[in-house]
Amino acid sequence: MDENTPHVQAKFYTKQSQYSVPDTPFSVPITVGVEELSSLINGLLKGDEIEDESVKFDFLINEEFLRVALNEYLEQRNISTENVLEIEYIEHHPAPKPDNSLLHDDWVSCLQGYSQYVLSGCYDNTIRLWKTDGTELMTIPAHTGPVKAVKWITQDEEDTSPLFISGSHDQTIHIWQWNQEKKEVDCMVTCRGHTESVDCLAINNENQRFCSGSWDKMLKIWSTASASEQDEQEDSTSTQKKRKKTDQIIPTRVPIVTMSGHKEAISSVKWLNLTDVCTASWDNTLRIWDVNRALEKSQLQGPKAFFDISYSPSNGMVIAGGSDRHIRLYDPRSTDGAVVKCAFTSHKLWIVGVAWSSTNDNHFISGSHDGIVKLWDRRSPKAPLYDMTGHEDKILAVDWSIPDLMMSSGADNNIKIYSYSHHKNISS
Amino acid sequence: MATVAAKRKISPVEEIDINEGVNLFVDEPPDSEDDDDTTDSDSSEYSGLEDEPDTDDDDGDEDDEEEDDDDDEDAENDEDEEDEDEDESDVEDSAEETSSHSKPTNQEIVTAEPDDKEGKITQLPDEYEYDSSDEEDIRNTVGNIPMEWYRDYSHLGYDVEGKKLLKPEKGDELDEFLDKMENPDYWRTVSNKLTGQKVLLSKEDVKIIQNMQKFKNPVGSDMYEPWIDFFTNEKMIHPVSNRPETKASFIPSRWEMLKVSQMVHALKMGWMKPTPTRKPDEEDETNFYMLWKDDEEPEITRQYRQYIPPPKVRLPGHAESYNPPEEYLPSEKTVQRLKKEIARGKTRTIPQKFSSLRLVPGFKYFIRERFERCLDLYLCPRQRKVRMNVNPDDLIPKLPKPRDLQPFPTTEYLVFKGHKGIIRTISPDPKGQWIASGCDDKTVKIWEVATGRCIKTFNVESKVKGVAWNPNPSLSIIVVAVETSLIIINPHVGDKLICSKTDLLLNSFEEVELPPAPTDKPKVTEWELYEDAEYELGFRLKIKHQREISQVTWHGKGDYFASTMPKGESKSVLIHQLMKRRSQNPFSKPKGLVQCVLFHPIRPFLFVATQKYVRIYNLMKQSLSKKLLSNCQWISSMAVHPGGDNVIIGSYDSKLSWFDLDLSTKPYHTLRHHTMALRSVTYHKRYPLFASASDDLSVIVCHGMVYSDLLQNPLIVPVKVLRGHKAAKGLGVLDCQFHPSQPWIFTAGADGTIRLYT
Q1: Which of A136, A140, A381, B674: disulfide with A127, CB 3.0–4.6 Å?
Q2: Phi/psi of residue B402, each to 5°?
Q3: Long-range contacts made by residues A9-13, C-beta under 8 angstroms, separation at least 24?
């Protein structure tokens, strides 16, 4: 490196204790890049005789990833080179590896993983059960219209007869029980009330309630109980078709609460906590509802119609994808109107799926109609960490319920699974 | 400036007074003359320069006024001094003496500046203009009386009008003392007994006084003026004037007496009026006047000044030289040609070479040329061309920037693939979840907007020319135009309850026994029911027409719909009522090639577009209400603003015309942004947007704001050109429709795709 290049004082620190280096400022040339910094840290660690050979590191300045040479970064941010720079470094995330591909007969509109199982809803009116290793367990002719949303209710891995729900274009929501021993799936309850296609479902943390959003602009809250006395027995006239298939009487359930307010279809719902639900709609708003009092608590106005949102309980932030190329980060706790904390731009088409990591509160994935799943770090808004290609058509949904697996389903009839060796949550 | 102006004011008024006093015995009082003019006439009386131009007079006038200014200034400066101090009495007395000697009034001594006095010799007229030495100072009319008589009064005498002349305010002893101490000119300040004004003696005046005190020539130095020898020492034969004194000079004038007695009589009898006293109001009026009025050029002179110089004659060039360079000398041929041209008057000279200038013969055409030149100048009216210096950018209307007009569709986000032919028509459902498309591959497809998924496909007999989703959200009906029939389909998407209700409604129809229609009039359409398998698929009704249907459109309430058959002649437009399964022909006569029809969104009007005109019919009154002149060759499509007062028309000659129905029957605005034929135009239901699709593969989205304020014209700004479709079979984009609630646009292309731009 040139002798004349200016140097800058830098102090390195990390939250990953196994990689900590002495807390003394180093003078580094200003033209240094990520690679050089990484080798510098490695050199320091070697001094401590750590076996790891050339661990790759990422560097953060002011909670933002360093992606370019240091001097460029400093120029862009207008940071003085006089002061001592505090640079955080973390181990570089290894790239996710493509794992499996689950082929369906038709477009896969929704999916959710749980334990080692994957549940997917399909445009051919079926729900499919898969194991993550690629074996198809079951195909359930569940609905009379395309299935738009599926969700596991049971989050307990010990349970041998887990419950799940599905919402469909046929305006119903079904609660299913999967008897693993008998290898049977039974429809426990049919939830009726929506007058248009049910597009999104969400289950609260205690698995007591779930809510559904529909094209009919309504948000409905339901009980998840597999059977209850309040459920009416279905009239014989209205469910002749169903009777033919299941040959048993399925109880019908009505919503506990119905909340209206959105001016357009609700495209995504998420529970914020046991009482609050956040909904995203085509009317460009995010609304937060208090379920117990059945009223709208606050409203965030967005620029475009929303398609999907995801809420991270650990950092309390909402990411939202909509009818443009930007993923936006919102803070639902803020009361000062629509405040986009950050916009992540890299996709080329509509963003139809977003999902926070359940283990790392900085990471999330997004899926778009351009067929690429992107892994993002909240601190790197300019560029994603990784692009995961594989889909040959539009992506319709993404899921990151299993921390090790990132999954996406698309119009190429496939579910693509990417394995991801995650670090432990490094947040304090 | 203001003070000068105010001072300038004073003198003319006084002079008027003088003049009026003088003119008392003149029959015509000089009413018509201005203030300035009176002085002019005054001066001209003395100067005898009446023939000189005005301007000279003006100059003189100004000088005069300046002099007066000085006078007043002086007077004001020394107003305070009134008492005659012993120290000064000598000076003052002598001053009075001198004044009586040299000039009749003190005033003139004061005003006269040394320069002017010297100038007396050189500039006689000027002198007369300001010098009024012959006139008494008539500000005080008491005459030559001892002024002590007025000692006990507050006034000094009377002016011409008989008003009291008030004594100027006296300062007290202290003022006097202060003045004495501070005013360096105190010693040469005297007071005019007649007016009570303080007068500052000039150096010359003091000199004169001093000279007189020394018994010298008062004027001082000029003892040896050139001697003008009127009475020479040479003996003259004739006296200068040998005329004896007239008798009249000895006796009182009878004529004068006669005249005076006549006047006295006239005064007594009241025939003759004394000069009218000035009203104070008039004086006030004259106190204000236009300061710069004189600077303005009078209208006449200005016109006269608009002199346009005659065009310059072209200066002779090298060819006209008596000794032109060789290359200017014409060849034989050219000479012949030039001669011809001379004969025709085109040119005048043939270049010729002479060894010296004196050998050059006289110009033959000199007189003629001069004459023609004069004729040109005389006969050719010349006019000054006023050229506006305008920045061309300023002429472009100020339009808002497109990014201030968001939202509007900007980018292609979704492609609906599945059709295998030219997609002629698309129609979104009123809730915006689905869109129906009609294609040349004999199918009608229903798509999910959010994902671009084809949900349903209906196979029909032939190419689909028109698809229209019922605008009533509580009905689930699509009407499809296929060759000579309309097919009513219940697509069974969306709310199941609505779908089943729609079926119930369609099936609840009962044939009402109409009074037997005249049998000679054949039914315009035949309504047929679908049954069994086709019914299961969703087909409900078929309305058979006699000719090929090109377009179908719904009324806003969803019960009536209209179909267009360009070749149907008198039956080219049919209106159908769904619930009563009835068709009617609103027009008895053919109106020309009907291109498309539309219902007014609110009122019972029907828009019928033929090749060149759009006729608007009132369906209630069954009359023609308006006829729009489209100004284009062949109308292809038409759309009505949701407010109903604005219509856009697309034509095959690549024009889009916006009509404001309240404004005119001619286009309010015409957009020519497309390069090929327009196929479809459409308005957005909620946003102020409209769009046009064309064969040039582009869709142009414009912002079209209609204001509820009737005074404000619609604002039309093109905001975006959307591309993406590919050409197929010489066709481009065939239809464009906005999403009912989002600012999105669907376009249907000949390449078999529907594209969604958001």
Answers
A1: A140
A2: -55, -35
A3: A9/A83, A9/A84, A9/A85, A10/A84, A10/A85, A10/A86, A10/A87, A11/A84, A11/A85, A11/A86, A11/A87, A12/A41, A12/A44, A12/A87, A12/A88, A12/A89, A13/A86, A13/A87, A13/A88, A13/A89
Could B744 and A323 be called an inter-chain contact, meaning their C-beta atoms sit closer than 8 Å? yes
* Interchain contact, B495 vs A196, CB within 8 Å: yes
A&B contacts, CB < 8 Å: 57
| A412 at B interface, C-beta within 8 A | no
B584 touches B574 (CB < 8 A)? yes
Domain ranges for chain A: 7-91, 97-419
Which residues from chain A sit within 8 angstroms of residue B413, using beta carbons? Answer: 323, 349-350, 369
ipTM: 0.85
Whether residues B433 and A196 touch (CB distance < 8 A) is answered with yes
Cα–Cα distance, B449 to B432 (Å, whole number)? 7
Query: For B170-205, what is each residue's pLDDT tens digit?
Result: 778 888 888 888 888 888 888 877 777 788 888 888
Q: DSSP code of A148? A: E
Sign of the torsion formed by the C-alpha atoms of B124, B128, B130 and B131? positive
**What are the φ/ψ torsions at residue A421 (nearest 5 degrees)?**
-85, 105
Q: How is A374-425 classified by DSSP, letter by letter?
A: EEEETT--SS-SEEE---SS-EEEEE--STTEEEEEETTSEEEEEE--PPPP
Structural domain includes residue B324: no
Q: What is the sign of the dihedral through the CA atoms of A236, A240, A244 and A249?
A: negative
**Chain A environment of B407 (Cβ under 8 Å):** 303-304
pLDDT, tens only, A338-348: 567 788 988 98
Answer yes or no: is B364 within a domain.
Answer: no
Residue B394 lies in a domain: no
Q: Is B377 on the interface with A (CB under 8 A)?
A: no
Domain boundary among B235, B267, B292: B235
User: Rounded to an integer, what distance in angstroms lies between the CA atom of residue A80 and that of residue A8?
Assistant: 9
Please give, rounded to a whole number of angstroms, the shortest distance from the CA of A204 to a CA of chain B: 26
**pTM, to two decimals:** 0.65
Half-sphere exposure of A158 (CA within 13 A, CB side): 0
Distance from CA of B417 to the nearest CA of A (A): 12
Q: Which of A283, A350, A396 sits opposite B413 (nearest CB)?
A: A350
Establish if B349 belongs to a structural domain: no
Helices B203-213, B114-122: crossing angle, 10 deg rounding:
90
- Give A274's strand partners: none
Residues B489/B502, Cβ–Cβ less than 8 Å = no
Residues A7-91, CATH architecture: Roll (3.10)
pLDDT digits 0-9 by tens, A255-308: 888 999 899 899 999 998 888 899 999 998 889 999 888 888 888 888 889 999
Which of B201, B219, B235 terminates a domain? The answer is: B235
B686 to chain A, any CB pair closer than 8 A? The answer is: no
**Antiparallel, parallel or unpaired: β A184-191 and A251-253:** parallel
How many residues appear in chain B?
A: 758
In terms of CA atoms, which chain A residue is nearest residue B744? A323
What is the residue range of B750's domain? 403-509+522-757
CB contact under 8 A, B496 and A170: yes
Q: State both tokens at A56.
A: 């790759």
Tokens standing for residue A107? 């477009």
Chain B residue numbers with beta carbons less than 8 Å from the beta carbon of A170 are: 496
Contact residues, B window 701-730, toward A, CB-based 8 Å cutoff? none
**Number of structural domains found in chain B:** 2
The CATH code for residues A97-419 is: 2.130.10.10
Q: Give the pLDDT mean for A236-247.
A: 45
* Confidence at residue B6, expressed as pLDDT on a 0 to 100 scale: 39
B14 φ, ψ (degrees, to nearest 5): -65, -40
| Shortest Cα–Cα distance, A177 to chain B (Å) | 26
